[in-house]
Amino acid sequence: MLKATLREGKPCIGLWCSLASTLATEIVAGSGAGWLLVDGEHSPNDLRSVMAQLQVIAAFPCEAAVRLPSDDPVLIKQFMDAGARSLMIPNVRTAAQARDIVAAMTYAPDGFRGFSVGHRANQFGRIAGYHQKARENQLLAVQIECRTGVANAREIAAVDGVDVLFVGPGDLSTNMDAMGNPGADHVQQAIAAVRQAAAGAGKASGILAPAKADADRYLRDGFTMVAVGSDLGLLARGADNLIASFSR
């Protein structure tokens, strides 16, 4: 389980699923990746397509995480009921926002997740004690993607219920006036600050790093939840490289 692996400080390599295709997700799920991120922010996924991909991933020994398009508590409720136990929330900026997200994932009295007797997450009512123990196995990764999030990273990491600070290097570089250049010195300093904030709170840190040299460096630095590519990127680059090999 991803949450347990990260708590032990062990690295876990993942892949992004952006094609909104159960077949593509099934293909990458068999790769041996430790986790897959089904993207609901920048991909044409909805509740039903995400649920179908969760069903596919369940046949493989990897964790399914779902990135929601926002921190909307209604979406959190719906996707968790559909079986998403590991969530990634984009552009978290403050500790107060992080606390609200945790509350949306948690049943009363500690939170306000809507209660349903039977849904896919508790095998339609077959898991005894699900509601009392629901948060034990759930993982929350909050994305740090702007200057404000970086400035508040220590406070965000200290929020009980936040498991991972996950850097979004594309948005972070854009919001730091270095669009498309996460390797810029000031962006790299911000990325390192997020990792240090997570470590200081005993939490894991993660990042998306499609270039292997970058991924290897981030792993050496102490990032543990590292995504190293996507189904879309693998298909596009593979097709490009194959055709280019006949055009020389």
From TrEMBL:
InterPro entries: Aldolase/citrate-lyase_domain (IPR005000), HpcH-HpaI_aldolase (IPR050251), Pyrv/PenolPyrv_kinase-like_dom (IPR015813), Pyrv_kinase-like_dom_sf (IPR040442). It comes from the Bacteria. Keywords: Lyase, Metal-binding. SUPFAM superfamilies: Phosphoenolpyruvate/pyruvate domain. Residues 13-236 form the HpcH/HpaI aldolase/citrate lyase domain. This is 4-hydroxy-2-oxoheptanedioate aldolase. PANTHER family: 2-KETO-3-DEOXY-L-RHAMNONATE ALDOLASE (PTHR30502), 5-KETO-4-DEOXY-D-GLUCARATE ALDOLASE (PTHR30502:SF4). Its EC number is 4.1.2.52. GO terms for molecular function: lyase activity. It catalyses: D-glyceraldehyde + pyruvate = 2-dehydro-3-deoxy-L-galactonate.
